[in-house]
Amino acid sequence: MGSCLSSSGGGGSRRSLHGSPHVPGPGRRKRPPKRRPGSCSSSFDNTEEPLLHRIPGRMFLNGSTDTVSLFSQQGKKGPNQDAMIVWENFGSMEDTVFCGVFDGHGPYGHIVAKRVRDLLPLKLGSHLESYVSPEEVLKEISLNTDDRKISEDLVHISANGESRVYNKDYVKDQDMIQMLIGSIVKAYRFMDKELKMQVDVDCFCSGTTAVTMVKQGQHLVIGNIGDSRAVLGVRNKDNKLVPFQLTEDLKPDVPAEAERIKRCRGRIFALRDEPGVARLWLPNHNSPGLAMARAFGDFCLKDFGLISVPDVSYRRLTEKDEFVVLATDGVRNIQAQCQNKCGLVSSFS
């Protein structure tokens, strides 16, 4: 299980991190794997990883700074397939931070999660450098607000193929918001295409969730696919810290997700020994049984209702918003966990 906690304050000096990555010294470079005939080339070269891990402000191991903290711990079921990242001064922009948590699944889920951790921020950063018009965003995501609870401070848009943004009257600095939202949507789309081109990672029956956050000043934009969560610690009217969930678990039995899956001939049912866990199955085979409706990778299901287009939400932060917790589903009872973190954070403030 893994989690990433970020306060809403500005940047700070870094404390020493446990387990700093080892950067190999000069020596003979390994040959890149042979490409399959006719395969497309990837824009990500594994030989760049040591340089990537040395970028100032970029953290991916257990540790903390004055404003962020990362922690991951292996559970009892096999290898730890979680990955996480915090990137302060993201895109060389002051008061901007990128955070992400990725929960891999399948035989190579741990590799997919790390690959997305490394590549998705680079994709996002490149899109932030160019303006994304509202018209382009409309082509990427669609309004889907059935059965959702929306606060007046939260603008929620959902992805299902096409898009529009609603409640614009609540959003200030609209150009900035559109840039962040459009960049996240495009980065997710290109990320999945990139995975399909990878020759050294089998993503056919392996994939990962993703919950990512970009905070720029008072602007907070969340992108989500799968069932990892983002929770905000907020001061209520009694000045007590309470959790506010920013994301929805995108499970196959969520009505809007189920409608799309059935339209694409995918099947949804739970196993007898897990009656409460709806899973996504191929039309004619009882496999792979994915317990989410959106994910990176898992290309065996991409023609049958599984998508990698993110659910995106925006919130304008106020002085009552203390911090955000991003966590995988391995952190059980996230609301209770967040309440514990609220007490922990407040005790140090």
TrEMBL record:
GO terms for molecular function: protein serine/threonine phosphatase activity. Residues 27-37 have a biased composition (Basic residues). Residues 67-349 form the PPM-type phosphatase domain. Pfam families: PP2C (PF00481). InterPro entries: PP2C, PPM-type-like_dom_sf, PPM-type_phosphatase-like_dom. SMART domains: PP2Cc (SM00332). This is Protein phosphatase 2C family protein.
